Protein: ABC transporter ATP-binding protein/permease
Amino acid sequence: MSISVAALIRPAKGAMVLSAVLTALGAIVTLVPFVALHNMAAIWLDGQVRTGWTGKPWVWAVIAVLSLFVGQLLYLFGLGVTHEAEAKLRHRLRGNVVQALGSLPLGRVSQVPHGAIRKMVCDDTAAIHTLVAHVPGDVTNAVVSMVVGLGYLVWVDWRLALALFGTWAVAIMIIVSTTMRGYSDITKRFGHAQTALAAATVEMLEGIKEIKNFQATDATRTRFNAARQQFSAISFDWVRRSGRAISLLGSLLRPATVFVTVALLAALFVAQDWSTLSATLPFFLIAPGIPEGFTVLVGLMQHIYESQLAARTTAELLSEKPMPEGSRTQEEGPNPGQVEVCEVSFSYEPDVPVVHGVSFTAEPGTVTALVGPSGGGKSTLARLIARFYDVNDGVVRISGVDVREASFSWLLSRVAIVLQDVTLSNDSVHTNIALSKPSATRAEVEAAARAACIHDRIMRLPEGYDTVLGEVGGFLSGGERQRITLARAYLQDAPILILDEATAQADPQSERAIHEALSTLASGRTVIIIAHRLATIRDADQILVIEDGHITQRGRHEDLVNQAGTYSEMWRAQELHYMA
Ligand SMILES: Nc1ncnc2c1ncn2[C@@H]1O[C@H](COP(=O)(O)OP(=O)(O)OP(=O)(O)O)[C@@H](O)[C@H]1O
Structure:
């Protein structure tokens, strides 16, 4: 189901309509003081004799003051209505965005850069503010003020009005057609560049250490610099175009210019006897205010574009198909601890399959190793087992249950996954370990940390388990961070454990500690491990060689090492490498 921008802001529609009506009334009432002044001028300047209250200037003065007050009140009330509705809508949208992210396939969410998510949750929902809170009031006020003002001028003296509008129309057409060409396209590119810069900034902050190493030689190689340069180039172009249009329109429509234009036309009309002196007065009073409506509209135009782009990004996210959750919440499956991958095919992009009809079974309590050349599909298979994505064909069964039929919590209680990229939050060590079981006591967290061979290191941190990671003293090495995630998996106590390159970031000493932690963690569980170091998995119960999305060899180490094929080649190459 696709969600449109209109559907996104629908909850605020009632308030927007009310605001438009109130501000339209306000704009009409605000014109009354000028009508009053015109009438006063007709009595004083033209010496018109009227009977009743219409002939009393002081009555017109009172009407002028009252209507000014009521007009402002209606305008402010209209703005207040939409601001309240927008605040509620923003709160709701932020909730919806976070909820949508939670229900998308995990693999899809991890593809969205953190910066883009931050922009969506914070900036985009805030940008919708203009669309909801200001467009109904300010646009209506500007349009109605102009229309009513112009209408009144036509009513007072249609020929003078025509002369004035004609002068404006020609001048505006020339300015707009020459300066605004391609404006919509550049505004779109400006929005995209903004998103790219936000994503690259977060990426840079997260990987500042690596970026520093590379930046030492060539700063422009980083994605951040590219995004920054692109953003600057586009924003310069955008500012130049919009600046040119705004300043030219501004000069034409500023009150002094309008006053002079009216003065010249009025002098001509009075001299020719086409108009009376009092009839020219509304032109001097109302005409300089009319362009304010244009200025408001031009100023709002940019905000409206930004709002629409932001709303579209949010609408696109909310339109994405959520991953349906199965209904099994408690009941154990028929084959506890078993992983069955049956005729599974999968592609990230349509028509580019990366896993083709793969089948294997990992029996409870056994170790299955996935090995093979880079890009073969090992991580993809691991992610499919943990249901980061849904398979295109075939089925993945955990404990004999199709993963699509189980609830996420059921799956989480059966499958623990330790990924290549260690993600720890800016929180205490305790909270980071207890992520898999928030109710865990300190004793349980400590037991998990001991099993993951990281307890001693944690005790050397300034505040022990209460040290906030990432803050002063709370820095851990890659291998140590990995052991924190192992402790987390240990605490999760799932019967199935998926390890993706668990020693990728570790130094040799840390690697030993990780292997010790791993054997504690693995005992009694079904383990599926992705490993590049074949020596670490030579005791595995089955080894699957994954190449180009297929299983090309399977068996135990002793069998495979004596067969001609990728495994024996990899084994020999690694033996030579480690002997060297
Ligand atoms: N999120 C993604 N979107 C599109 N293609 C992807 C994505 N992740 C992986 N791929 C592609 O799928 C194929 C398999 O990748 P995968 O990461 O599963 O391989 P791998 O065997 O684990 O590699 P490595 O040993 O280098 O980690 C590769 O061609 C890769 O480029």
